[in-house]
């Protein structure tokens, strides 16, 4: 049984890792008026944030069509028996649903669509683990089982500089009544039931960093090995410095650095910082 892993561009896995692990990507897009840019192919993250700063129009995002996902599956059906297709949370995008529909239409390959219920490098952690297992020849059903176990241990918290981007794009749930008051603070956000909701109201970004660390500490002190990622939107220096501080304090945690690319950056705005991790069982 030959299995391949497909994901979407919002996992923001570095290109060399994609190649090395033979992971395929279907892109989401950002649109500035009539201009459409596919993530990973037509616009870099830096170009995107530069364009937002200078453009009169704020960008919007779009998911891949069922046809685009189907094309990718058809191409892979010549070489593989099974596809594990891991996508950003179905509570914030229709991409997973497009994968489900395309999977029902393709012939000659069995598709296992997987809702990561999250996005960015937290989704990337599932993708990399699935690709590693696929390369080892593990059966797709067992890979999905492992992803479900990882999900039990996955945590992600993030803060944004300006909550109005999330509110404008309609991706902030359970907080409509609070939005006005939340705009004055730096709420820590997280995913609950596939959607983004405020986790705690926090007054300053300094306290938000502290709180994220405290939450990581709770997991790190109960586990031998933890994998974590600091994710940032054009705040590389701050993220890198924080990574070094945390690495020194938590030797059992393996940290990587990642970023909020164009599609996620459209909804979070520049300046967002997040921390995600999972306990390696
Ligand atoms: C679409 O148009 O289908 C894409 C919508 C993407 C919404 C993104 C909302 C922000 C997600 C933040 C993820 C943080 C993970 C640590």
TrEMBL record:
Keywords: Lipid-binding. GO terms for molecular function: lipid binding. InterPro entries: DegV (IPR003797), DegV_C (IPR043168), DegV_domain_contain (IPR050270). It comes from the Bacteria. SUPFAM superfamilies: DAK1/DegV-like. PANTHER family: DEGV DOMAIN-CONTAINING PROTEIN DR_1986-RELATED (PTHR33434), FATTY ACID-BINDING PROTEIN TM_1468 (PTHR33434:SF2). This is EDD domain protein, DegV family. It comes from Piscibacillus halophilus. The lineage of its organism: Bacteria, Bacillati, Bacillota, Bacilli, Bacillales.
């Amino acid at each position: 049984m030959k299995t391949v892993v497909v994901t979407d561009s919002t996992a923001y896995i570095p290109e060399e890792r994609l190649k090395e692990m033979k992971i395929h990507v279907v892109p989401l897009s950002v649109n500035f008026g009539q201009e459409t840019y596919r993530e990973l192919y037509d616009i870099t993250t830096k170009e995107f944030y530069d364009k937002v700063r200078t453009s009169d129009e704020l960008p919007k995002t779009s998911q891949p069509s069922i046809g685009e996902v189907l094309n990718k599956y058809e191409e892979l059906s010549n070489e593989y028996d099974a596809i594990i297709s891991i996508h950003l949370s179905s509570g914030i995008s229709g991409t997973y649903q497009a994968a489900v529909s395309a999977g029902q239409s393709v012939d000659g390959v069995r598709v296992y669509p997987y809702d990561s219920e999250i996005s960015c490098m937290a989704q990337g952690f599932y993708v990399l683990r699935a690709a590693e297992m696929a390369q080892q020849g593990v059966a797709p059903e067992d890979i999905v089982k492992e992803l479900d176990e990882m999900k039990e241990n996955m945590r992600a918290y993030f803060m944004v500089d300006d909550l109005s981007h999330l509110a404008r794009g309609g991706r902030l749930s359970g907080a409509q009544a609070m939005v006005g008051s939340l705009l004055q603070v730096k709420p820590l956000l997280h995913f609950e039931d596939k959607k983004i909701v405020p986790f705690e109201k926090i007054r300053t970004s300094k306290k938000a960093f502290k709180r994220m660390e405290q939450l990581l500490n709770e997991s790190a002190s109960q586990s031998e090995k933890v994998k974590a990622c600091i994710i940032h939107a054009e705040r590389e220096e701050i993220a890198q410095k924080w990574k070094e501080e945390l690495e020194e304090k938590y030797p059992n945690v393996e940290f990587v650095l990642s970023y909020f690319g164009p599609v996620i950056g459209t909804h979070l705005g520049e300046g967002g910082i997040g921390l995600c991790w999972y306990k390696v069982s």
